[in-house]
């Protein structure tokens, strides 16, 4: 008998002994001195909202857009661009988050070979939740379908991928759970798109519209001192001063608690919904995958029935954390990709920009002796060898070209350095206080026509769209990332080297060396706080990872996590999928569609297998290395090409 059935049987037995008249699906374990309450009694939730989503032009999964509307090249328009309504913002946020995660291109297979965007009507409940000791809240949201299956009482809980907003897992958890009659609870895990305009003194309200701190319901508000000292734009992942990644697991559990509370409100005649009588499955990809793995390890009352983690950003003792390999890639990968065996990647950088990276790496001694006078070809090979020696596969390097092309390595490194160090937004004037970042990266609206881009105040229509359009990490949605200025053109890459130095602790002299040492300790302590441990015994876990992942290579994440968890006796299954990289959304590009398959079908299939295990006692899936087929150029995806294990 699995854990869920054991708990449900205990609850039903307790009711039978007390001769209660309620049906078994509506009962909860008795609250006695030996059985603590299943919901946190502390007032962790604030700014609650409830909205209904029904009718021809609205629903839970796509705000009425459907697959055709989500495929539209332009986002849903605002009637008044400077003052969009909450409903307009929600519709646009769903459009943006679907397109940021799933391959919706015609021929890509979504909605035909796998996945669903069917209409699901119902209610949404949202609030802010706060973990003890945090400066800022995280968003939680529960979607409760009208067709909720009271017979199986299923709650799917998910964390947004990347640093996305509250709808950042809609294509992962919502698309699987809502059509099956499950409720779905989400968290932005302390990141998200609640940007704060420091120049205008404006932030994002609970409903996504723009407001002032005095309104009392903003999702992210820097302190008064920070608002006075800094300019430009602050965002929660980098500037909350909470190092949210350290609490990702707690964010997921609080979202699940909120989901149970939402079910109580939606179906009071069947309440209470508890850990004992409601099946809880956690799922996420990328950072969301790391978050649900962290949730699986939490101590306390059993609450989680199963976990599915896709391409998780998870760090375990003895492995390389994200910050280490991201800062390495930021400096060396543009050069290494010029090595001829890798140069076939369509998105690989070329020309003078890549040559500058090779020259800078050679001048700083990162490529070995004699490279300062070597040819660019020799430097590229040396950079390639260095990355290979440090664990990068050829497949990961080829796919990593996407992160080079989209400036992701720099964006991620700057954001996470600030988050791990718990730094405030960079002050307008360089300061030396302990809460000012060692490297004053800044964020602001930009005049894109200027080269290089120049910072300027944000316009009202730009600010109004951030919550819906942004990915949670600039650059993007009209917000630019500005590095500390370099007076010497030859030192244009010095800020990247400075980010790398926060990991290595090497660089500088005199006062600069002392400042680096303090910042290095601060960032390293933040990274150490994110280290994962094994899931609780009895919680089945399925990890799914593409072997071509170039952003979070499995060699640095899933592989060491699975090994650690198994040494601890955990129940873990591992699917490794060939020809799958990190970004399904990029497969709309024909050159990438011919090279890669999407990850989402395997996440959905793993969820199906976990559900069958919990509901019917079916065996968990076996470990598998999945050999996918590839599409011919211009041809649609066919189900046999996915080779999903049965």
TrEMBL record:
Gene Ontology terms: biological process: butyrate metabolic process
Native source organism of the sequence: Lysobacter firmicutimachus
InterPro entries per record: AB_hydrolase_fold, OHBut_olig_hydro_put
Coiled-coil stretches noted in the UniProt entry, renumbered to this chain: none
Pfam families: 3HBOH
One Gene Ontology cellular component: extracellular space
A GO molecular-function descriptor: hydroxybutyrate-dimer hydrolase activity
The protein, known as: 3-hydroxybutyrate oligomer hydrolase family protein
Entry keywords, A to Z: Hydrolase, Signal
Signal peptide, first to last residue: 1-28
């Amino acid at each position: 008998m699995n854990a869920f059935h054991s708990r449900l049987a205990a609850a039903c037995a307790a009711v039978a002994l007390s001769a209660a008249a309620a049906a078994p699906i509506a009962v909860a374990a008795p609250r006695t001195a030996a059985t603590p309450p299943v919901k946190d009694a502390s007032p962790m939730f604030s700014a609650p909202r409830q909205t209904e989503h029904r009718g021809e032009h609205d629903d839970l999964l796509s705000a009425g857009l459907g697959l055709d509307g989500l495929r539209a090249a332009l986002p849903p328009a605002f009637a008044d661009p400077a003052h969009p309504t909450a409903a307009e913002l929600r519709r646009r946020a769903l459009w943006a988050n679907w397109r940021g995660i799933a391959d919706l291109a015609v021929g890509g297979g979504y909605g035909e070979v796998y996945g669903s965007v069917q209409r699901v009507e119902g209610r949404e409940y949202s609030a802010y939740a706060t973990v003890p000791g945090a400066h800022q809240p995280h968003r939680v949201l529960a979607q409760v379908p009208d067709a909720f299956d009271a017979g199986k009482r299923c709650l799917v809980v998910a964390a947004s991928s990347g640093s996305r907003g509250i709808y950042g897992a809609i294509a992962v958890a919502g698309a699987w759970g809502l059509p099956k009659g499950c409720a779905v609870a989400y968290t932005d895990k302390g990141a998200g798109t609640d940007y704060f305009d420091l120049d205008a003194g404006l932030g994002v309200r609970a409903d996504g519209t723009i407001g002032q701190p005095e309104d009392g319901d903003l999702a992210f508000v820097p302190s008064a001192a920070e608002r006075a000292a800094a300019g430009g734009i602050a965002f929660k992942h980098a500037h909350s001063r909470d190092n949210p990644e350290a609490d990702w697991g707690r964010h997921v559990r609080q979202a699940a608690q909120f989901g149970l509370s939402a079910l109580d409100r939606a179906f009071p005649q069947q309440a209470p919904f508890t850990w004992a009588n409601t099946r809880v499955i956690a799922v996420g990809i990328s950072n969301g995958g790391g978050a649900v793995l962290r949730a699986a390890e939490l101590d306390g009352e059993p609450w989680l029935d199963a976990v599915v983690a896709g391409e998780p950003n998870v760090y375990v003792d003895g492995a390389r954390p994200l910050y280490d390999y991201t800062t390495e890639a930021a400096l060396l990968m543009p050069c290494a990709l010029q090595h001829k065996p890798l140069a076939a990647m369509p998105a690989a950088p070329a020309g003078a920009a890549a040559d500058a990276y090779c020259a800078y790496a050679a001048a700083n001694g990162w490529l070995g002796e004699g490279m300062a006078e070597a040819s660019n070809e020799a430097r590229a090979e040396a950079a390639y060898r260095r990355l290979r020696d440090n664990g990068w596969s050829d497949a990961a390097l080829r796919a990593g070209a996407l992160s080079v092309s989209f400036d992701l390595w720099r964006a991620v490194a700057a954001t996470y350095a600030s988050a791990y160090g718990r730094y405030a937004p960079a002050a307008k004037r360089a300061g030396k206080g302990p809460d000012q970042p060692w490297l004053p990266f800044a964020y602001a609206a930009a005049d894109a026509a200027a080269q290089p881009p120049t910072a300027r105040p944000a316009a009202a229509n730009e600010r109004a769209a951030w919550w819906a359009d942004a990915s949670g990490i600039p650059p993007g949605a009209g917000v630019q990332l500005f590095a500390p200025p370099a007076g010497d053109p030859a030192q244009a890459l010095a800020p990247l080297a400075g980010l790398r130095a926060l990991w290595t602790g090497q660089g500088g002299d005199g006062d600069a060396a002392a400042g680096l040492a303090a910042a290095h300790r601060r960032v390293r302590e933040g990274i150490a706080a994110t280290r994962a441990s094994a899931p609780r015994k009895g919680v089945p876990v399925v990890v799914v990872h593409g072997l071509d992942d170039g952003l979070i290579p499995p060699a640095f994440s899933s592989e060491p996590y699975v090994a650690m968890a198994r040494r601890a006796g955990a129940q873990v299954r591992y699917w490794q999928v060939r020809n799958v990289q990190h970004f399904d959304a990029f497969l709309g590009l024909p050159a990438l569609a011919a090279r890669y398959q999407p990850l989402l079908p395997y996440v959905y299939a793993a969820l199906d297998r976990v559900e069958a295990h919990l509901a019917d006692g079916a065996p968990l899936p076996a470990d598998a290395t999945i050999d996918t087929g590839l599409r011919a150029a211009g041809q649609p995806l066919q189900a046999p090409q996915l080779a999903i294990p049965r």
